[in-house]
Amino acid sequence: MASFLAQRFLRFIAVLLTITAVTFLFLHLIPGNPVEILLGEHATHADVVKLTHDLKLDQPWYVQYAAYLGQMLRGDLGRSLTDDLPVAQKLGTYFPATVELGIAAMVVAVLVGVPIGILAAIRHRRPVDTLTSIVALLGVSVPVFWLGWMLLWLLAYEPSKVGLNLFPLAGRLSIKYSVPAHTHFVILDALFAGNMGALGDALWHLVLPAITLGTIPMAIVAKMTRAEMLEVLQTDYIRTARAKGLGATSIVIKHGLRNALIPIITVIGLQTGFLLGGAVLTESIFAWPGVGRLAFEAISNRDYPLIIGCVLLFSATFVLVNFIVDILYALFNPRIRYT
């Protein structure tokens, strides 16, 4: 296990170094100067040159990259060009919102996708199987931005016109609630504060964004579960279990699903990494203050330190999720051992 952890740590460092180098190179290949955006269209050439020099943006990209690596070793991700706030502080403020939304979306995906995938496999080539396949195809095909706007319009905006507040239009918490931001996870902060009203309101705000973001992963999880369960249910040990007279639930869950879990866990882990990497469209539609929305604003403003900080966070999150998936392999399959 120690050797496995050491290898993973070295890969983690290599990924971050490669990502930062590639990001630095691409940012400096893209035309445009962030200083011109900061100063506005009425800035003089002398002002642009001076601020560019002050921010050290006139140096070659590899010199800036070397200086940035030195800052990273000291735990400093730099300061945002737009508001001069530390990048690490901004990421720490925005990332919890993305984590809450990503976890909620994956809960929706797993709680819906796995059962309907199992049901489709059990009812293979029956109407339920066909309906499940159609739903999965629609889930993958429907654009996130269209689904988000439709849910917002049908379940929040239109009902509010007749006095029905079915779902909130935007944000993480209603203005009538206030909880101390100890962790920046609104749900946890509400729990720690003992404010059950704020907790319910935070969960209420999560429903529509989580459904919107979780639809595509739900469809993928359902298709993977169906495919793996179909393969497992046709194996010899399942036929033996049936011949012994075991109950249907025991055969499907204990013997079938347990042996089909490895590919399902893999796809769940990959989808979780993608979601936590930033759900730009969903966060924009529902005015969700997450890292995806922050990254979009940083790209629009050519805020180099903030862009690189977001990319590093996305990369680290994806690597961490894949590491957790590897650990889960050993937990669910005793034959897998890491040495």
Tags for this model:
mainly alpha; 2 domains; 75% helix; 0% strand
Task: Walk me through the topology.
Elements: H1 2-29, H2 34-39, H3 45-54, H4 61-73, H5 87-122, H6 127-141, H7 144-161, H8 186-193, H9 196-232, H10 236-243, H11 248-276, H12 280-285, H13 291-300, H14 304-332
Summarize the structure.
This protein is mainly α. The protein has helices spanning 2-29, 34-39, 45-54, 61-73, 87-122, 127-141, 144-161, 186-193, 196-232, 236-243, 248-276, 280-285, 291-300, 304-332. It folds into 2 domains: 2-73, no CATH class; 88-332, MetI-like (MetI-like fold, Orthogonal Bundle), CATH 1.10.3720.10.
Describe the structure.
- This protein is an all-alpha fold.
- It contains 14 helices and no strands.
- Helix 5 runs antiparallel to helix 11 (248-276).
Q: How far is the N terminus from the C terminus?
A: 5 Å
Query: What's the number of extended β-strand segments?
Result: 0
Q: For the record, what CATH class of the largest domain applies?
A: Mainly Alpha
Could you estimate the helical fraction of the residues in percent? over 70%
By DSSP (H or I, 4+ residues per run), the number of helices equals 14
Query: Going by CATH, what is the homologous superfamily of the largest domain?
Result: MetI-like
Shape: globular
Calculate the mean pLDDT score and round it: 83
Biggest sheet descriptor: none
Kindly report the CATH topology of the largest domain. MetI-like fold
Alpha carbon gyration radius: 24 Å
